[in-house]
Amino acid sequence: MSRDLRSVWFWLTLAALVVLAVFLLYPLGRVLIGSLGRDGASGWAQVAADPKYLQAVINTVVLGTVVTLGALLIGVPLAWFTARHDFPGKGFVAILPLITLVVPEVIAAQTWLMMVGNNGLVTRWLGGLGITLPSFYGWLGLITVMTFTYYTYVYIGTLAAIRGFDVQLEEAAMSLGTTPAASRWKVMLPVVLPSVLASALLVFTLVVGNFAVAMVLSNRVPLLSVLTYQATVSEVGSDPTLQSTLASISVALVMIVLFLQRRIVSRSRREVVQGRGAPAVRLAGWRGALLGAAAAAVVMVSLLPVVSIVVGAFTQARGPVMRWGQWTTANLERVFTRAPDPLINTLTYASIATVIGITLSVLISYLVVKKRNRLTPVLDYVSALPLALSGTVIGIGLVMSFNSGWLPLAGTGAIIVLAYVVRRLPFGTRNASSTLYNIPDSIEEASISLGVAPVPTFFKVVLPLMLPAIVAAAVLTWTTTVAELSASIVVYSGGRETMPIQIFRLIDSGLMAQASAYGLLLITVIVVPIALATRVFRIDLFASRS
Q1: Cα(65)–Cα(60) distance, rounded to whole angstroms?
Q2: Which of 129, 275, 361, 438 is a good FRET partner for 411, with 20 to 30 A between their CA atoms?
Q3: Which domains does the chain have, with CATH numbers?
Q4: What pLDDT is attached to residue 231?
């Protein structure tokens, strides 16, 4: 211990833990303690007394289960055929991971409504043919939008696992007389299954914490995230017992799922040395055409939000009525001339949050990977904690903690920046850590042996080697930060709206054309850094993830 006390890295670890304790653990603790209520009025008693809250929990679990199954049914076969076969249009499937980053969830919900909502383009067209579509609000819309939003997580995880599987194991099984199907079932499946299960459980946790799609499409279906937000709005300035209780239930659900994920993955894990991947089999004729058509259909559905946003941004509208086929630039002109504040706020808050977040992420990852001490395991766990928390829970905790007192941040832009930093901190730490594991300690040791102190060695030797990963982490942090809604909508105040918040408000008012203009601008703000990183600087954003 005395050796640790003499190290500057130990004190930096302690400082990082203090920062996370103040801005992450303390707000989370306020949420959990707040559920106990005041004067004996427990929030748990309120929840137990009203059946709608129990129904909301059941609905949330059912929705998470159904969406997860749907994501598996789409993502796993698509990953298998992409990894093991060549077919017409296969190249288009490569854009699927990018779409997940490019299209914010609030825009995905909006664009589906523009197509098949009550006044949607497809709804009106089919109505003219005498065909009436069922309402897209409620279970149908929730399941459809979330499934096509989250299946890419299953696709990416399964694809990586299949491509990393050593095909020689399959070949060895078949050489012993096992059929190809049986060898895949008995040999490949046990190796790939942990990645599939991990991706599936990730989808479930994302559904539980989803706010944007749930708020726009839930209608009369009570969901935990929607009731939590409604309780937050109704309890502003009063005793926040109910919102704390509902937020605590959300945390408990996610923690239970993460616990199950650890148990299942640890029991199913197989260690296989990286070997030769299976060559892709070319599919021709009707089988190739059919598979290509199926993959193209999935891609087209995934691209629907982007296409709809572009069309909607240039479509004339009178109030909530979209005049399809009549074009105008007035929607975009209004964004730049009459209502530019959401754009300015988004760029300002996201820029500051990205710089602060990446700086903190690089420091934490370096301490955890390269300068381990008694405190770094705790730092590693705490820095990853936001992955298990929904944005709504983080926002509620920050408002409860910094509404007044020694650090009154409520009503300022600083609390929005703080919400961004806390929410997206794991993105930076995971990307930076992946590179640090590949930097040999001998490089640092050689620099120190030549008389350069440890801290200058970090800046002169390690930091330049980390630069590609830092840029990738910064781009990924930026793209997810500018699209953030669930935390920012809880902490923002009047005049500090960001583009996702403005889009959400316009959708709630039925002004789809104006929402599309902001949506197109938001997608542009997300796409430009990605294009610069991948095309100009040749940085593989997805390979940098760990």
Answers
A1: 9
A2: 361
A3: 1-34+328-546 (1.10.3720.10), 43-313 (1.10.3720.10)
A4: 81
